[in-house]
Amino acid sequence: MFASIVYVLAFLAHLAEWVALRAVTVKEPALASVGAPSAELSGAESAGAVPPPDNSEVFGRIGLALTVLGCLLHFSGLVSRGLASDPVRVPWGNMYEFTLAGTFGVSVMYLVLMKRHHLRWMGVIVTGFLVVVLMLDQLVLYQDAGPLVPALHSYWLVIHVLAAVIASGAFAVGALALTLFLVKDRATRRGTVRAGGYLSRLPSLEALERVGYRVNAFGFPIWTFAALVAGPIWAEYAWGSYWNWDPKEVWAFITWVIYAAYLHARATAGWKGKAASVIALVGFASLLFNFVGINFFFGSGSLHSYAGG
């Protein structure tokens, strides 16, 4: 998949961005310490040295441009997958296609929220995540394109899965932000944040936690619609009942309860920071289990077993 190759290049560009930032941080103090007898002279003038060039912005822009290109190719791959089937259909009829759609949601959500919340610092994490998941999807879950099973022939399936993909993309970006928050918080408490390192270049702990909360708060009502409105309507169309106690239905509701608990805890005094972030990450783990684990652990015991591939 060409999108995966472009995401790899985007990951390398963002990695080079952070390496360049670290190089500037390390060299600037060294230049400042080389013979500066007078405060009127700059370090470069007094030492006869030229300040190190900062290439981080160039690498960052390249990484962002490649991520946009990868997202466009990702979308083209999804469209091609649907067109390759006979008859033409939506491209989420099995786990391979669900994963393609889910990772596309992560990519789109990151790009949409990047400018508003200044998320380019997450570029190396998001592109790395996309590369790993798409690689596993191709190696483990790949299936040839084929027709949909009868239960999937409904426009409510399109609405249900589309909403779930958008919400999952938001939850993934939120989970990455909160993971970085917890890692930096622990390193800060231990005094192990290195000057010029990745953690030192991240936003403040408050900003990281706030980004995670806002993105999760954005995704929650969309997940509510996907899991508790569109899903049951589709279930009634496919199986004649709004609720069948199917493992995937139950686990989608469990995921909803966990995120509801997180948002409630986050809005309650004393539950900001580490405690609330852990609840959100438990919610994301529940989402992943619902997305993948149900198919492997319950198999034919689920009405959604056709999605296991």
TrEMBL record:
Assigned keywords, A-Z: Cytochrome c-type biogenesis, Membrane, Transmembrane, Transmembrane helix
Recorded GO CC terms: plasma membrane
GO molecular function, one term: heme binding
Membrane-related topology note: Multi-pass membrane protein
Single Gene Ontology BP annotation: cytochrome complex assembly
PANTHER family documented for this protein: CYTOCHROME B_B6 PROTEIN-RELATED, HEME EXPORTER PROTEIN C
Name of the featured protein: C-type cytochrome biogenesis protein CcsB
Native source organism of the sequence: Nocardioides panacis
Gene responsible for this protein: ccsB
